[in-house]
Specification:
84 residues, globular
């Protein structure tokens, strides 16, 4: 498992090689937005930049999870994941 920031951005974009701070900052900014929009979510599921988090962020990148079915109705994708 990886720290949350690294699971969100496992590779730096061009020009940011050699430092992790921009990726940590973007993750922190995204968490702050989430916490503002969903203030009670933290009570249910605490998330911080450095905590070890599920690796769904990595699995999403190669479509190896059911993540997209949480965003919209995708019956054929659900069937594919179930059968393969």
């Amino acid at each position: 498992s990886l720290p949350y920031w690294e699971a969100q951005e496992p590779l730096p974009p061009p020009g940011e090689e050699g430092t992790i701070e921009p990726r940590r900052q973007r993750t922190g900014d995204a968490l702050n937005i989430s916490n503002t929009l969903m203030p009670y979510f933290q009570v249910m599921h605490e998330m911080t930049i450095d905590h070890i988090h599920e690796d769904i962020g990595l699995m999403v990148q190669d479509f190896a999870s059911g993540f997209f079915t949480t965003l919209t109705h995708l019956p054929r994708w659900s069937d594919y994941l179930r059968d393969n």
